[in-house]
Amino acid sequence: MIVINHPQSCTGCLICELACSFHHTSKYSKSHSSIKIDKSIFNPKQGTMITIYETQQGTHPACDYCEDEDVPPLCVRLCPEEVFSLEGGK
Amino acid sequence: MIRKSYGYAGSILRVDLTTGRHWTESTTKYAPKFLGGRGVNQRILLNELRPWVTPFEPANMLAFGAGTLTGTLVPGASRLNVDSKNALTSGIGSGNAGGWFASELKFAGYDNVVIQGKAKSPVYLYIEDEKVSLRPAEDLWGKTTKETEKLIKEDVGCGDVQIACIGPAGENIVRLAFIIVSGSRAVGRCGLGSIMGSKNLKAIAVRGTGEIELNNPSAFMSLVESVTKRLLSLPSVQIRKDLGTLAVGPLHNKLSGMPYKNFEDDYCPEEIFAKIEPEVFHDNYLVDTYGCTACPTPCGHSYFINHGPYAGTHCLKIEGNAMFDFGSRLGIDDPAASLKAQQICGELGLDLDNTSSAIAWAVDCFQNNLLSKENTDGLELNWGDAGVAIELIKKIAYRDGIGNLLAEGSLKASQVLGKGSEKYSFQIKGQDLVEGIRSTKGWALGIVLSQRGATHTRGAPYTEYRQWSSKDSQDTFGVQTAGDPTTYSGKASIVSYYDSVCALWDSLGLCFIIGNWAAPEGVNPKELSEFYSLATGTEISEKELMKAGERIHNVEKMFNVFHVGFTRRDDYPPKRLMEEPIKSGPLKGELLKKEDWDKMLDEYYTLRGWDPTTSWPTKETLARLDLTECVDILEQARQLHWGKLLISQKD
To answer: DSSP letter string over B534-546?
Structure first.
């Protein structure tokens, strides 16, 4: 499963969100991603709310841990802050 | 509406505020010839704006453009370009910002939004995919940018919306007003916020649930991954992430490029500089780091002041220029005051560069007995007085007292005051100069030639501050002098390279920081052409892409030629910087020599295919760039501005 290690490091760059949609659809979008990032720049103490959809919600597909790919999940690979990790295998 | 354009969203949204009507047109009308973002905005403005329209008339237009690659994962592909007639120069007005607005606009289905007309009462434009509406904004009028963000999110009942808005300064048609994007990023310079205010347009809010489709997704993503990996290993990128763009400060002071007391000198005394170094901000006030869409190396930092007279201030984002603006240029040595000034400017909607320049002019005038307490509302204007500077910011935003004069910008204010006060206004084409330029000749040439008025983001090379090797210089520009600040030779070639490349970044929607500006290893035009080809399916070579950048640069030149009749005379630095040498610092004694400047100009115009006497593009150049439709504009400009042409020919 995908583990969120240190959400306070998240900068809100949406790389994971867009990369996730790319995995599911080969396109970039926020609405077809299994990840939702909500960072409040006005209230830094609030931190970042990171949601990983374990089941489909509306247009958001469930996270499948990029199981059909030979390499680590895109969010794990591309997050520059290394917020995500894959634990327990796919 | 074409939604299946690869890379592009496919549509341009047109809105007439006077009639309330809105419609769309296909982006293919302008792309790929003008690429996207800034290029498409500028082409529309040159096509549709008449030269006799003044900036604040309803007939002026305001174009918002997301880049072709914005909304993808190309590193730094977050940028929004906003273009209009310039409130300060009447030539091209253009500004660029990061944040999350531009990608949201693409997801909503639009590459550009073009506004015309004027609403009868305050409104904001709300875009939710295909649903477009003008909503009443009387309750938002008078609110700060921060309050506006909050109230619009409440009004639309959704926090997941991106907003570009103005503060009270824009509403009050202050020529120094900017547009705040995503709460913290600014479309600065050129008074674009005042254009928005003149149209009774408080904000644009956008929410998009669509997708960006690519022609060759797997190859595109492979290139994204390899480029991102390389960027993350670059020290020049890493330092921006650690310290933000404040990191540039020490580089500038080291080369005597830091204005002190309104260009009395270009070197900040060490005892003052030590108090405003980037590490001071980082170590004492940093509370958060945030990144624009698709940025792996975020420079967005926010700061909180928890003690002293400014305790409780939360300042979102501060740029390197802030060290000049409300720091060295005004002789202010208190970082907390700089942060407070930044926070107030941001919330009231004022561009820091132009605002601090107007204040610097006023202080200089006061110190030289051209202004007194009788005309400054009782304020005593002294160098280093942060409290008075902050008071003046508020007065400017509300056009209160002396603020009403300063709200016009330093040049216009000096024309009103007269008495020789023009010598304290350091401007080019009507827009203020922010940084020291006497020591770094290529940097100076790029800043002075900038078509929106003085600015370093339109062709000024950073190679001198980063001390590029002669090999990197030769490989990139075909000359060896990029890293040598005081050499005039070769600088025209470097500027002519970067003014094309800057047009590419702003049209494709990429951030400077990841480009081959700070470091030769940054994303280069060849890679941009690969990204563009893989994204859109339109194969374009590096050479063709560079030609597109040059084409966009020439469209903007034609706007200035047509609307203002700028000539070679407008491509010189402020006179004092050509006569008064730098007084101290490592490059003490440097100034910009007239004869050397003339040689650089001649070389630049030749490289560009512009007439060296007038600086105007030749018919042959317009034809080479597939801009034959601009030949008529050239002829009309000759009729309109024959007097300026005559003067330029006599020089």
So the answer is: HHHS----HHHHH
CB within 8 A of B223, min separation 6: which ones?
B527, B530, B531, B534
Give the 3-state DSSP-derived string for chain A, with helices as H, strands as E and coil as C.
Answer: CEEECCHHHCCCCCHHHHHHHHHHHCEECCCCCCEEEEECCCCHHHCEEEEECCCCECCECCCCCCCCCCCCCHHHHHCCCCCEEECCCC
Task: Let me know: does B118 contact B56? Beta carbons within 8 Å.
Answer: no
Report the residue from B103, B288, B296 with minimal CB separation from A80. B296
Q: Does B159 touch chain A if contact means CB atoms closer than 8 Å?
A: yes
- The count of domains in chain B is 3
Q: In terms of domains, do B398 and B452 share one?
A: no
Peptide bond into A61 cis (omega under 30): no
Mean pLDDT computed over every residue of chain B: 96
Which segment, A83-87, B116-120, B245-249, is predicted with the most confidence on average?
B116-120
Q: In 3-state terms, what secondary structure has residue B208? A: coil
User: Tell me, what CATH number does B112's domain have?
Assistant: 3.60.9.10
| Residue B222 distance to chain A (closest CA, Å) | 12
Domain that holds residue B57: 11-207
pLDDT digits (tens, 9 = 90+) for B532-576: 999 999 999 999 999 999 999 999 999 999 999 999 999 999 999
The letter for the amino acid at A23 is: H
CATH number at B358 reads 1.10.569.10
Distance from CA of A35 to the nearest CA of B (A): 14
β pairing state of B300-304 and B314-316: antiparallel
pTM value?
Answer: 0.97
Helix (H) or strand (E) holding B299: none
